[in-house]
Specification:
Length: 99
């Protein structure tokens, strides 16, 4: 027998938000630019980079997690044995208390 439980989302760590991939890509590029030029890209260059990718303004750095739909929790089926072990810290089949 199984029970439906809710756990912290492993994708967003329970926050309901994930870092935008476009910003990760941009930050890697900007870090490389700084290594090569000694400073980060100008604001105009940043805006142009995002415009080339279809953004007319800077996009949000975070967005709702697709895995948990922004709730921070995911549904997980667990066996009664797993639930009992977590709640009572015992092994159902052995009846012994776990150390």
């Amino acid at each position: 027998m199984e029970v439906l439980t809710r756990e912290k989302c492993k994708e967003c760590y329970g926050t309901g938000l994930v870092y935008s991939g476009i910003w990760k890509e941009f930050n890697e590029l900007d870090d490389q630019y700084k290594k090569e030029h000694g400073h980060f890209m100008s604001n105009e260059d940043c805006e142009a980079w995002f415009r080339e990718r279809g953004y007319h303004k800077f996009p949000s750095e975070e967005h709702s997690c697709g895995e948990c739909e922004g709730s921070g929790l995911i549904a997980v089926w667990k066996s009664i044995d797993e639930i009992a072990s977590m709640v009572f810290n015992i092994g159902i089949h052995t009846g012994h208390i776990k150390p």
